Structure formats: structure tokens, C-alpha cells
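Holo model, zinc ion. Inputs:
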Amino acid sequence: MTAGLVFHPDYLLHEQSPGHPERRERLSYTIDQFREEGVFSHRSIRLITPQPASRESVMRVHFSEYLSFLEGSSKTGGFIDFDTSIPIHLWEAALLAAGGAIRAADAVLDGEVENAFAMVRPPGHHARPGTGAGFCYINNMAVMVRHLQDRGVMKILILDWDAHHGDGTQQIFYEEDSVLFTSIHQYPFYPGTGSVDEIGLRRGTGYTANMPVPAGTGDESYLYLFDTVIGPLAREFEPDLIAISAGQDNHFTDPLTGLALTARGYSEMMRRAVDLSRDICEGHLVAVLEGGYSVEGGLPYTNLGILAALAGLDLSCIREPSGFLEWLRKVRDPSAHRGVVENANALRTNLSPFWRCFGSS
Ligand SMILES: [Zn+2]
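Output:
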């Protein structure tokens, strides 16, 4: 099988400020690691260069007034919130990120590759139709989903595993039954949303599944949620494509969050997602990078882990950054799993009227 890696050197240009967590080193260190591991010459990985998204594509998600504000502010510099300023040239950077997600989707739909990882920045999952937030400007995932729908893909399962709840993506699809939005995230935490009681509205009721997890949650809990919530939902929903908002900030070294996923855990979760996609949707799977702020200790390893899983490579070589295992012992809380199971049970109860796998008749 071949996995597509969508990347553009200009993804290293965007910068709010040199000390900002969402900085260019997030990907420059990953690219160095990929070079060292021979990723770019591997026969199972194809490097794909994206084009910027068109204004029409991003207007499928965002209001015209907001896009004009972004474009105008990108000429002078501007401000959205405390974490999210608009540096000069942001507009071009944001369109290229959204274009990366679109290119990844096209590569999979057209059979160029079996699955793909759009390794883009800036991220997108906090962006809503009328505003950016939390380092995000244009919702790359939502723009990609609208593009897929325009190409005739009827049903899409989103799995957002970023440590922060994907509030923007949830809001955009909250009233739709053709997009099943699932999310694992630290809770309570920024942005404050993502409880098990948020299950969608109107026609979309039952098509949002939030799996909040406490700080200290590790690999076994993520795999438990994958096997007992996401897998059963996916098999019943029968999507045409699985779209993963791949936030890499659950890694135990991440400076902004309190979770304890390992690089090996990430790769195993992606391997299960690949297996699931083969069972139910011909292997059609696209991952889009969201967060991840451990620029040296986490991201190069987690990005390599999920790409290796997409390409079907031996995952036994996926390792944790040396010298960090003591850190893992401090961050990981074995008692967190109890809270994970309690929340998952509450979610199953809330969704049971809508899904046979959770008990509806
Ligand atoms: Zn995040």
C-alpha cells in the first residue's frame, strides 16, 4: 500500500511570534526526523505537494465577511483572540493549509494513494464559520469534508483525537446526519465544550459522540475507546471515508496538555483506524494535522508513528524520545481509566436511542 504525505515547505513560514507554541519548529523538527528515517525515499510513502484552497472552497464553511476580515488583516497584521493573532501573510498560509487537506482527500479519492496524512499548519479545528480561535483560522477538516461531499462522498466519520475538543468542527456539523463527529479530548479543559451530553441537534441528534478523558489518560484508555465506542459506531454508520483530525498534543511530553499517550500508542491507534477503514470503506482514510506542541520530544515521533501506520510499516521501531520515560511515569495516572470508562458509559446511554450497538432496538 502507499500512503500520501501532503506537505509544502511554505508550511514552515507561518509564525504568530517566535515564542508562540504553534511555531514553525513544529514541522521543521519533524521533517528532520523524516529525513533521518528515510521517509522521503520509502517506496510505501508518496510525497504530495498541495495548492492553496480557493476562496470558494473555504466559503463552503466560513462566512464571506470573516474571510474578508482575515484577508484584509493579513496585509497589516491583526488580532482574533489572546492566543490567535493574524500575522502578515496569514491568508496565504491558511489557504495553503486548507488546500493541503483538500489535496489529501483528492489523492485518496482518485486512487493515487490508499490513504493520506496532510501535515499542515496552521491547524483548524477550533475555527468556526464566523471566527478563528485557539491558533486556528480556517477549519481545514471542515473545508475538506465539504469538498468530499461536493465530490459525491455521502457519509463521513470524523475522529478528532486532538487533546482539545474540536469545538469548531463539532459546531459546523452539529445538525447533520451525514457527518458523524467523534472526539477524544482532555476534559475539563480548553475550549470548555465536549461533554457527553452534546450529541447533536435536530437531524444531527445522535451524530456527535464526545469522549472526554481526564488528565493522565494513557494508551490503554485510547485503545479502549477506539475498540468499544469508535469501532462499533463506525461499523454501524458505514461511512464512505474516515477523516482524522490528528492532534498530536496527547503525547506525554506536550507542554500544553496533561495527557499520557505515547508515540507507540498513537501508531497503534492509527493502525486500528487503517484496519477499520479497510473493513468498512475500502481503506479510504485521510488524517489532517491539528495540534501538537512538543516540538522536539513529541511531534517528530508521533508524526512518524502515524505515518508508519498509514503506510503499513513495522511499528515496533516506533520509539519514545530517549530520556523522557521518567517524564511518562510522572504524567501517566493509572486511575484515570476509571473516569474514561464512566464517561464512555454515560455516552453510550445518551446515544443508545440512536445506535443499535449501544442498545437501541
Ligand atoms: Zn490541541
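The CA atoms of residues 189 and 251 lie 16 Å apart. The radius of gyration is 19 Å.
Archived with the compound record.
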